[in-house]
Design goal:
The chain is 17% helix and 30% strand. Helix 3 runs parallel beside helix 4. The chain is α/β, with parallel strands linked by helices and 206 residues long. The longest helix has 12 residues. The protein is globular. It contains 4 helices and 12 strands; from the N terminus they run E-E-E-E-H-E-H-E-E-E-E-E-E-H-E-H. The strands form 2 sheets. The protein has a 6-stranded mixed beta sheet with strand order 1-2-3-4-5-6. The mean pLDDT is 96.
């Protein structure tokens, strides 16, 4: 399995058999950076533009686009070549052999446009588990106390999501985490530096 990080909360997971799943590659990633990237599928956590951007979707041209009802309504008559598949909280889906559990995430009180649905994802691929927290402000979603994951993708930007201290405290709740990857820090890059310092002091793997 290969995991590639993009701006804000964007990732591409590539399984050993070459299947590519894009997650939340939104408006913070320049479209020119996406040249030659052709994911088989794309998964989007919620409606905000830094996660859900029609321009980036059109550039990537995923064969399948997994989005919630609110995103589908925003698309309206927008012409996309992707097959659109609606997802919702509690779904357990198989995307090209990659298993994804969808759970509810609390975005907190500071969003100007509060999403009707805001997802996190627990991904299983090639015998590895990836926890994608999405835009989490308050600890929420599935219980992590008994959860062992190889990668935890955790927002650290503050205001709209966990800040560095809250992110470290949340990661400590897991039974076991192999590697922590901070995300959602583009507007305040210093929060990534602060998170890394706190994580290293706490003995978390980065």
């Amino acid at each position: 399995m290969k995991l590639t990080q993009f701006e804000q909360s964007g990732f591409i997971i590539e399984s050993d058999n070459g299947y590519k799943l894009a997650i939340d590659i939104g408006s913070y990633t320049p479209v020119d950076k996406l040249n030659g990237i052709s994911p088989d599928a794309m998964l989007i956590s919620h409606i905000h533009g830094d996660h859900f951007s029609v321009e980036q979707i059109k550039k990537l041209v995923p064969k399948k686009l997994y989005i919630n009802r609110e995103c589908i309504e925003v698309l309206g008559e927008e012409s996309l070549s992707s097959e659109i598949i609606e997802i919702k909280i509690g779904d357990l889906i198989d995307i090209g052999g990659i298993k994804v559990q969808i759970f509810d995430v609390d975005h907190g009180p500071n969003t100007k446009v509060r999403p009707k649905e805001n997802f996190g994802f627990l991904v299983e691929v090639d015998g590895q588990k990836i926890y994608f927290a999405g835009d989490m402000f308050y600890p929420s979603g599935i219980e992590v106390g008994d959860l062992e994951v190889d990668f935890a993708l955790i927002p650290v930007g503050g205001f709209y999501t966990f800040g560095p201290e809250a992110a470290v405290a949340f990661v400590k709740k897991f039974k076991k985490v192999g590697q922590v990857i901070p995300m959602h820090y583009e507007k305040v890059f210093e929060t990534k530096t602060e998170f890394i310092k706190l994580a290293e002091m706490s003995g978390l793997g980065l």
